[in-house]
Amino acid sequence: MGTAMAMMASLLLGAGLLAALAQKWRLPAKEAAALIMLASAGASAALALFPARAVLQPATLPLAAWAAQLAFFAGSTLLRFYRDPQRTPPADPQAILSPADGTIIYLRRLAPGAVLQAEKKGRAMGLTELQEARLAHEELWQFGISMVFTDVHINRAPIGGRVTLVRRQPGLFLSLRRPEAASANERQTMLIEGDGPPVAVVQIASRLVRRIRAFVNQGDLVERGQRIGAIWFGSQVDLFVPASLCGGPQVAPGQHVTAGETVLCRLTSTPRGRADHRG
What we know:
- By secondary structure, this protein is of the alpha+beta class.
- It is about 25% helix and about 30% strand.
- The protein contains five helices and 16 strands.
- Helix 1 packs antiparallel against helix 2, helix 1 packs parallel to helix 4 and helix 2 crosses helix 4.
- The longest helix has 23 residues.
- The radius of gyration is 23 Å and the shape is elongated.
- The model has no long low-confidence stretch (mean pLDDT about 80).
């Protein structure tokens, strides 16, 4: 009876720790509760079916229960990580959509000729590839979107048009204490040009997990809301929109956005002949 009570106490303590972890990962409350219940039930069932008492010392059974609970929770969360849900863009043809799931961390208006850079964890990252583009001479709106582990990691086209640039900047494994570390993250920049100046989507990988994929190539035509790439295990996506295209931001810092659905701003004129991607 004492061992059973100790295992139950271990699972309850583990549930509390998993709840804190779920909050850190920004899991929706209902989904987090379901995952924790599943992990606790799975751990209990695993230890009941597995002859744990015959293999393990009684003192180690509570630790085994917590380890099994954590394993079930991590496995369930990892399966969630690879999801790719269907998305339907809003009917408004003037809507410029979020390229990523995540939270708006900054929103800036940049003067023509300003140095174009992203900011990650308080450090500036110069985007030299954009300084060379036509975009550098435009007045711009910049949207910074932070992605966490539990966000959907598929990125989508904010507008319909032609992909005029896909450029990847390899990353380096550097300590964040080194000044050059800010610009050492792997990133990938895409320019998409519709009926006016291009918009830029900059995918920035985490320093340790450098995995960015492009689903499109330079010269491809894309539809608004179409899958254009992915950042595995998340990090950040910045969107640069010429002020001549954007009638003003429709979001604010701290707001959670959804790729292919959330309207970041609206075009000042209706695009001609641009279809939307549904799916």
